[in-house]
Amino acid sequence: MAEYKCLNCGKVIPSSELNLKAKCPHCSNKILVKVRPKVVKKVIAR
Ligand SMILES: [Zn+2]
Question: Residue 18's domain spans which residues?
Fold first, then answer.
């Protein structure tokens, strides 16, 4: 599931909580950035 972070208050909101409203439920800020899930990059060591 995707998560979004509010740039104003810094809270992370799951996309299910946002529904179709692209704004922060905490402070009504509309600037949200998508938070990438913790994915470990595979680096091939040589
Ligand atoms: Zn906020």
Answer: 3-35
- What is the whole-number distance in angstroms between the Cα of residue 11 and the centre of ligand 1? 6
Q: Which of 12-16, 20-24, 37-41 has the lowest mean pLDDT?
A: 37-41
pLDDT for residue 31: 93
* pTM for this prediction: 0.67
**Residue 8 belongs to some domain of the structure:** yes
Rounded to the nearest angstrom, the distance between the alpha carbon of 6 and the centre of ligand 1 is: 5
Ligand 1 centre distance from Cα of residue 19 (Å): 15
State how far the alpha carbon of 18 is from the alpha carbons of 2, 30, 35, 46, in Å.
11, 11, 14, 43
